[in-house]
Amino acid sequence: MNLEDLSLLNTFFIVMWIMGPAYIANSVAVLTGGYFPIDQGKTLSDGNRILGDGKTWSGLVGGTLGGIVFGLILDAGDSRMALEHFTGEEYEESLWGNNPVLVFTLLSFGALFGDMSASFYKRRQNLKRGEKFALLDMYDFIFMSLLLCLIIQFTWLSTWIIDGWKPLFSIIFLTPILHRVVNIIGYKIGVKNEPW
Ligand code: CTP
Ligand code: MG
């Protein structure tokens, strides 16, 4: 893959595509979540819950699987044709390297793991479940997705993310927007308690 010569708009498309499993994972978790709190209701010595009722096994498992399925859909022939249509570029190989399912897993599990780490931190700051923590809420998930890929799939990640400044810029620019739009939709259709 070579993103260096792409226009900024096309880089936005590709990056959203590649990171799709990470972006969708938390939304699926909202739908499947709510059952079996991961911290089993336990508190730490500060008197606050370890993670809180917003982090459940049903969300973690559902969100991870949802992200993997979404990745498989994005990687299917017809979707690839759609992307080629959007960008006017041709993609002979999978955008996720030679082990796409592993990458989907890292992206979607990473997203939920990042979200969980943020909840752990928020509880230590005496913030109750659902309370807002602007920057953290926006970037926690994508940061951990990328970190897991950096550790476990470095070769794949380095084939595209450091092709000039555009890929990383796209992530930093698009993530808060996508996060916000998705959460407002979730709030409006009644599956999410807060619009953030
Ligand atoms: N959810 C879940 N398990 C997860 C992640 C999310 O069950 N691992 C579900 C919960 O029902 C949660 C909802 O998705 O309430 C929204 O997720 P999020 O905004 O991350 O959780 P909050 O309720 O805001 O809790 P926190 O303050 O810990 O972020
Ligand atoms: Mg929240």
Which keywords apply here?
single chain; 196 residues; mainly alpha; 64% helix; 0% strand; elongated; binds cytidine-5'-triphosphate; binds magnesium ion
Write a structural description.
It is a single chain. By secondary structure, the chain is mainly alpha-helical. It is 64% helix and 0% strand. The protein is built from eight helices and no strands. α1 packs across α8 (166-188) and α5 packs antiparallel against α6 (134-152). The model has no long low-confidence stretch (mean pLDDT 95).
Draw up the topology in text.
Elements: H1 8-18, H2 20-32, H3 57-75, H4 77-87, H5 100-124, H6 134-152, H7 154-158, H8 166-188
The chain binds cytidine-5'-triphosphate and magnesium ion.
Largest sheet: none
The share of residues in helices is 55-70%
Helix-strand topology string: HHHHHHHH
Cα Rg: 17 Å
Structural class: mainly alpha
In whole angstroms, the N-to-C terminal distance is 34 Å
What share of the residues does DSSP label as strand, in percent? under 5%
What does this entry show, briefly?
This protein is 64% helix and 0% strand. The chain has helices at residues 8-18, 20-32, 57-75, 77-87, 100-124, 134-152, 154-158, 166-188.
